[in-house]
Write a structure and sequence with these properties.
four-stranded parallel beta sheet, six-stranded mixed beta sheet, alpha/beta, 2 domains, Rossmann fold, 10 strands
Length: about 300
């Protein structure tokens, strides 16, 4: 197996730092705002990527790791970096066969530079990737029948259990913990780690309203049933995954200038914007301490 010593040798900063920021949008409502700087855990395996990947890498047992993502997937980048650091072969199944043969974008170029073998599939096959026959076909086509298969976003039972430590680290510090959600694995684990009188708030970055069922299913597989007090607010996706607006960029630029913290736009900015709106709406009682989990950082 990829030993715990090998993972520890990568030097993760755990528990990740917590930074209190003073911001009048929260101060005037009597709300204390903390930033949980998971973006500082590791320079290559940033934020929730470390928490979700580490238990799966430990189970790889020297096998290749195959996983899925879009053309700008941070999960693919993190998996490729992990493979480079630990000497594990990695295969990335990329949505969109029209991308094959074109110059690689910066995200996929970074994956390739880290040694990831990229396998492009058409969008209809990608949609069916979890079906046994389709998955078997993808594994054969990628010559990866012996690979450890990780789902898109890395959210499986092991990943969810890995994210439980995030809630445990924040148990004594915050009343509400907010996190941006893609597949929901981080929220599923975070909520399980919080104390019973604390709650987790997920801000989906995709539209569609389907995420709650996925989180419940992840908790069932990871823990055998529901865990923790959590809810979702789906108003802040800004058009969907990888979508932003000028308003969101203005907000993120302003937050960076106020607090000197880099703000990743596709996840973290949406979560911070949501918290500012919710504070203005009176969603948090005076005296509430809110922790915002910084799950990633801007990539060049």
């Amino acid at each position: 197996m990829t030993s715990p010593d090998a993972l520890a040798a990568l030097g993760p900063q755990l528990p990740s730092p917590v930074l209190e920021v003073r911001d009048e949008r929260f101060d005037r409502r009597g709300i204390r705002l903390l930033l949980k700087r998971d973006d500082l855990i590791h320079p290559d395996l940033v934020g929730n990527k470390w928490r979700k990947l580490a238990p799966n890498l430990a189970a790889a047992d020297g096998r290749p790791v195959l996983t899925f993502g879009g053309a700008y997937s941070n999960h693919l980048r993190a998996t490729a970096a992990a493979g480079r650091l630990l000497g594990l072969p990695t295969i990335g199944v990329v949505r969109g066969d029209e991308l094959a043969g074109r110059p690689l974008n910066p995200s996929l170029a970074r994956c390739a530079a880290d040694g990831m073998r990229l396998h492009f599939v058409d969008r209809s096959m990608y949609r069916c990737k979890t079906e046994p026959d389709t998955l078997a076909s993808v594994l054969r086509a990628a010559s990866a029948e012996d690979a450890l298969v990780l789902p898109e976003g890395g959210s499986n039972a092991s990943a969810v259990r890995g994210c439980r430590a995030l809630g445990e680290e924040l148990r004594p510090l915050a009343d509400v913990v907010a996190v941006a959600c893609g597949t929901g694995g981080t929220l599923a684990g975070l909520a399980a780690g919080l104390a019973p009188d604390r709650r987790a708030l997920g801000i989906p970055v995709l539209k569609g309203g389907f995420l709650a069922d996925g989180i419940r299913a992840l908790q069932q597989r990871a823990f055998g049933g529901p865990r923790g007090d959590w809810r979702l607010d789906g108003r802040f996706h800004f058009g969907g995954y990888a979508r932003t607006t000028p308003e969101l960029h203005v907000f993120a630029d302003d937050f960076e200038q106020r607090h000197g913290v880099p703000v990743e736009r596709l996840y973290v900015a949406k979560m911070l914007y949501a918290l500012a709106v919710l504070a203005e709406e009176g969603a948090f009682a005076r005296g509430t301490t809110v922790a915002a989990v910084v799950t990633g950082r801007p990539f060049p």
